[in-house]
Design goal:
globular; about 0% strand; membrane; transmembrane helix; about 210 residues; transmembrane; mainly alpha; single chain
Length: about 210
Amino acid sequence: MNSFETDVKRAIISKGFLAGFVLELLILWKVGGDSELFRVTVPVISTFPYATAWLADYQSGYIKAYLPRCGRTSYICGKFLACGIAGGLVEMLPCLLYLRFAKNAAALNPLLIFFSAMVWALLSATLAAISNSRYIAYGGSFVIYYILVILHDRYFEDIYCLYPYEWIQFQHTWIFDEQGIVILLSSLSALLFLIYYNTVRRCIERV
């Protein structure tokens, strides 16, 4: 099993993934997909599964034993991709169950939920790499999320492309419709990867 497969397995069977899945499902079931609570928990719960995995390896010293077996690039890419996939799935899977079984379920797009949650999970992982702090990793993505919400609601209503709520349930006209949002979020993920890769590589070169 390669580094990527190992990381994905670790992320999906983690306690953080299970806790996030159950918590988001309860939120959707109790207050619905069009609630403020659901929207603001996306950047938080998406970080539960694997956002600080690299930091845990680095601080515990486990990385010293693991790196020689998989290589630096494989290790970094595996951590980043597993974080994004697990972060997206921990939000998308509860949404699928909610849409399937809840009566009068709010219209949610599982694909947009996945990509939006993926971006926030990857942002959290990047903040963890930059700051070496789990607190900043878990709280930073939520703070940035809420700053974007406030800036849109109070000052820049026309700049809806950077409005996090729009990424979940879009209300405006986008080029290529929902695929336009996917392209934007994929581009943000690619930018985060460049930052994450260079930051982590500099750290592990000293290991």
